[in-house]
Amino acid sequence: MPSYEGRVEELLKFKIQRYPFKDTHLFKTLEKALKWIAPLHLPDPADESFKPEYCKTFHDITRFAHEKAMTEMFGIGTVHDVKDSWTIPLSAGIPIYAHMMAIDGGVKNNTKKASPEDNL
């Protein structure tokens, strides 16, 4: 009587591949490209190397552009002199220092400090 060793070699050729995509040319190409896309080398905006010349990947470029946009958008009252300008301090009921831009009459007149309700 034959003994069972835990494997039937004749059936292994019918084994379902778990990740058939990994063996494709497309997967291997994407895997090579990923090193230029995903790694982040600029995690800390306070770091001395947080400069465009240190961007090595698309993730770095996106991170740098996003951080600079946020700094510009939310730092307008601290970086620029906003007295007598087209911005109004925003009082939103949360701990954030931000200014609302009064574009094309979009804020109620004579408002010294704007709330979200003052936006027309």
Q: Can you give a write-up of this model?
A:
The chain is mainly α. It folds into two domains: 19-74, no CATH class; 81-120, no CATH class. Helix content is 29%, strand content 5%. It has helices at residues 9-12, 25-34, 58-74, 76-79, and strands spanning 87-89, 99-101. The chain has a two-stranded antiparallel sheet. The chain is elongated and about 95 Å long.
* Helix percentage: 25-40%
By DSSP, the count of extended strands is 2
Number of domains: 2
The helix tally amounts to 4
β-sheet strand percentage: 5-15%
GO molecular function: kinase activity
Organism: Candidatus Hakubella thermalkaliphila
Keywords: Kinase, Pyruvate, Transferase
Protein name: Pyruvate, water dikinase
What would the keywords be for this entry?
120 residues, transferase, kinase, kinase activity
